[in-house]
Design goal:
Blueprint lengths: L5 E4 L10 E4 L8 E3 L2 E3 L11 E3 L7 E4 L12 E3 L2 E3 L13 E3 L4 H4 L2 E3 L2
Parallel strand pairs: 2-6
Antiparallel strand pairs: 1-2, 3-4, 5-6, 7-8, 9-10
Length: about 120
Amino acid sequence: WDTDKFVTAPLTLPEKDQEFLFSSDGECFFPFHYKNEIFYDCVKFTMKHKWCSLNETYQGYWKYCSEDDFAKCVFPFWYRHMIYRECTEDGDAFGKKWCSLTQHYNKDKMWKYCD
């Protein structure tokens, strides 16, 4: 890591009363591991803005997410017994289009609404 691009930030992210290395650049790493969970997109928790880890397993290096950082749809993906190559309304109670964040929705169950 180029430590010149990081600043010590006395924020309560993600553990209380610790300092973390915040970067205004760098690339989000997806999926990333944090607190025994796996995240495929930027997270918010109790913060004002969404953030992401810059490591596969969160090690204190993070940044606030920009529009370009949010999870992208993965095509094609498996849902039930079909392969989808674009967003679908299938299975959504409100008829909104959605997509998988992995190729195997049936296994991973990670998704988001399409824009």
